[in-house]
Each structure stands twice: as C-alpha cells, then as structure tokens.
Design brief:
Length: 115
C-alpha cells in the first residue's frame, strides 16, 4: 500500500516538475514595495482573468521576510513577446496604481539557462 502511495505521488508531481523546468518558459520577476500588502493583494488577485487572457501561464507572489510590503511577483509566459506585451498592458499599469505600488519597480525577464 505504501509503495502504491509513493508511485501515485510521483505520478502527480513529475508533470508539475516537467512544466516548471520547461526550457521554453519565460519567467518575469517584478519587485516593488506596496503601501499595504492586503489591499495590494486584493487588486492583484482580481487580475487573474486578465493574466490568463494575456498569456500568463503561472504566477507566484513572495513577500520579504523583513518587510511584508516588499513584494516579488513571478509570471511565466510561453514567449518573451508575451512577457513584453504584459508589461505594456494598460490594465497592469492601472492595477499597480490602484494597488498602491510605490517607489521604483524592478522588472527582469529570464529563461532557464542551458547546460
């Protein structure tokens, strides 16, 4: 029974690992400070349908351990062009303003390094 459980867990987790390490995925990191994390998070979560419609295939939100209002967000895309289009989206700019993003916004776009 235990080996069946291990096999089932592996079967479920391997596809997720394969997607996360897909060399075709482009990951965007966005780092900034917000006035109030809870208020910002409501606005961010409200963008889920806009993200999906505009090519975001995965996302995550991280808070600094020293300052919970310091946020790093990742968005995954199938292409660099989709990532660049996302940055130019008027809905994104409006949401950042509404969510209380303050100070400088740092953005970098990456792809998994080759061996």
């Amino acid at each position: 029974m235990r080996s069946l459980l291990v096999a089932l867990l592996l079967a479920v987790s391997v596809p997720a690992i394969a997607r996360a390490s897909d060399p075709g995925v482009v990951r965007m990191y966005v780092h900034h400070e917000v006035a109030d994390y809870a208020a910002w998070r409501k606005v961010y979560d409200g963008l889920a349908s806009v993200q999906k419609k505009n090519g975001v295939i995965a996302q995550s939100v991280w808070q600094s351990v020293d300052n919970p209002n310091e946020v790093t967000v990742t968005h995954d895309f199938k292409t660099a062009e989709k990532a660049k289009d996302w940055l130019a989206l008027p809905d994104l700019k409006a949401a950042m303003e509404k969510g209380g993003v303050k100070g400088e916004v740092h953005v970098w776009v990456t792809r998994q390094g080759s061996k």
